[in-house]
Amino acid sequence: MERSPLGAAVTLDDLAGPDLHATLAKLRASEPVSWIPALNGWLVTDRELAVQVMRDPDTFTVDDPRFSTAQVVGPSMLSLDGAEHARHRVPFGKAFGLARTREHFAEFVETRTASLIDEIEPTNAAELRRAVAGPLAVAVVAEALGLDDADPTTILGWYDSIVRSVSDVSAGHAVSAAGAEAFANLDVSVRGSIGGDSLLATAADSGGLNETEVVSNAAVIMFGGIETTEGMIANAVWHLLTNPEQLAQITADPGLIPNAVEESLRLEPAAAVVDRYTTRAVEFGGARLGERELVTVSLAGANRDPAAFPDPDAFDLGRTNTRQQLAFAQGPHICVGMHVARSEAQVAVRQLLERLPNLRLAEPTAPVGLVFRKPPALHVRWG
């Protein structure tokens, strides 16, 4: 007998394409914990069960030799649990707290966003992922890591090579030479910034990490700070431009922009899934999970659970519980940079709508992706 009849039919294309949410809805209704042969693991789509997984590192851990990021950049807050996780995370948690973030980043984000829009404003057309969302995310990461002297193109090159190497490891290959070289270059640059006044230096000074551990965590921050923040901005703009009634509400009342960003995160989290591994055999969500099996939490599925969010597929600026979305995860591994990311998205959306009148999509598009979801391109016009 198949472990999960519906899950057996699910393909990677189903989980990466624009129709992902229809697939997740079927699984959530009948197999909220479903064995997916295409993933060689379990997929959790129910919100309550998703939260249980993320809040229980004793049963569902990230600390597993298969965790691909650790193979490329070394142990970090992303790949450790328990006391070691706390030792790696606490210094960065302090550095990226809400008050420190506002103090360090508010003016920088406003100024950098304005300068990016200055470059495109006269053209009346642009691809916003590459023109605004991506460059803003890179600039903020460079500021956080004290890499102000590094060319943004160079940082993106390191990032791309490291991400490709992580993907190769996930597919069963060795760490690539390009990935190792990129991480070595990042290592040199980060070590040079530890003595400065960046948030990274603050983290290094505030407790118990050696330079190698600081560099590993810097690489993790680079992943989250570039990939997911770019997607978060692109998805928020896409949701507004494809929902004209809500866009009109935002135009009339820019104070709704934080609601729009949260609702976009709920509908299309930039990181669609997070992975855990069982530490023991466990009965969970009507399924029997074996020891050391992969458990993938679908943040995208949990965020559209109708038990938590009535009319879950609607983009609703008046939704009262939209901040209960799980795009930043939950539990000990909740996103350390979520305050910075929210600030970037809110500022970018506000300035784009203020400065580019009659902003509209120039080409149809939609978010796609298995792990990270965003539009492949976001071509827009204005004026």
UniProtKB/TrEMBL annotation:
Entry's InterPro entries?
Answer: Cyt_P450 (IPR001128), Cyt_P450_B (IPR002397), Cyt_P450_sf (IPR036396)
Q: Which Pfam families match?
A: p450
What PANTHER family would the database entry show?
A: CYTOCHROME P450 YJIB-RELATED, P450, PUTATIVE (EUROFUNG)-RELATED
What family is this protein classified in? Answer: Belongs to the cytochrome P450 family.
Q: What is this protein called?
A: Cytochrome P450
Organism, by scientific name, is Tenggerimyces flavus
